[in-house]
Amino acid sequence: xxxxVTILGSGSAVPTPSRFPTAQFVSCNNRNILIDCxxxxxxxxxxxxxxxxxxxxxxxxxxxxxxxxxxVGLISTMHLLGRNSGLRIVGPKGLEEIIRxxxxxxxxxxDFEIEFKLLEKGEISSVYDDKLIEIHTFPLNHKVPTHxxxxxxxxxxxxLKKQKVLDFQIPLAVIHQLKAGKDxxxxxxxxxxxxxxxxxxxxxLSYAYCSDTKFDERIIEHITGSTVLYHxxxxxxxxxxxxxxxxxxxxxxxxxxxxxxxxxxxIMGHIxxxxxxxxxxxxxxxxxxxNSIFAKDGMMIEIGK
Length: 305
Ligand SMILES: [Zn+2]
What we know:
Elements: E1 3-9, E2 23-28, E3 31-37, H1 41-47, E4 57-59, H2 65-68, H3 71-80, E5 87-92, H4 95-105, E6 114-119, E7 125-129, E8 133-139, E9 147-153, H5 162-168, H6 172-179, E10 184-185, E11 191-192, H7 194-197, E12 206-210, H8 220-223, E13 228-232, H9 240-245, H10 251-261, E14 265-269, H11 279-288, E15 292-294, E16 300-302
Parallel strand pairs: 3-4, 4-5, 5-6, 12-13, 13-14, 14-15
Antiparallel strand pairs: 1-2, 1-16, 2-3, 7-8, 8-9, 9-12, 10-11
The structure holds zinc ion.
């Protein structure tokens, strides 16, 4: 099973030749998720080999243009390419109206259904749940209602110690219970302990996404222990007044949240176009949290590796 993030856009509101506005593709246990969809996201998907029709869920963090202006174009392309399977879009209240009216004004009638899940300001809830993954939302602290997301693997069946199962000739009905992590007393009165016949469970991985937001420690409780954290770092400390005023974070802020959340790795992004490179961001963040990297368009990060 693969769990990876591909950065499609690592810049902020003003695009630069090397950085598109925010978008990320997450592949988690065969589920394909797009997080945010800045202008040009569909071109980036093509460029970096992400199949447009493979998307099942789109998560939008907030209604600033650099996070959703690419959405109607992407949806339109899905239609032109013959999509007939449904699409789920999660985002702030108001998003459905924007997308439906753009499609209507553009005379685009879709051959597939879009199911919107619209979030209230400050909402904490589960927005997607199936056999293999779950996605939760939590509030960030930005100028407009903004939603963070946490994508988590779900526990799967335990793997058997095959030789042991053969040696003991365990009945099939018992095997099912052991794989589900349950001890079993069978009809003959034999007691089977699942830990004796199964391998230790795989560590469950998770990816937390926080963009855009000012420094806010209330985020920590929602992302504690995540394997990888993406946290915006629009500015560096010398511009921290500007960060405060615009409800954005510095690299130091992002690293502090990573440290206090006890995550394994921090990815920063959403760099302001005022900086010619991310070196200062990296220096600042690594002073606080060593395992910090800065996103680049086209970069792929495997979660847990
Ligand atoms: Zn914003």
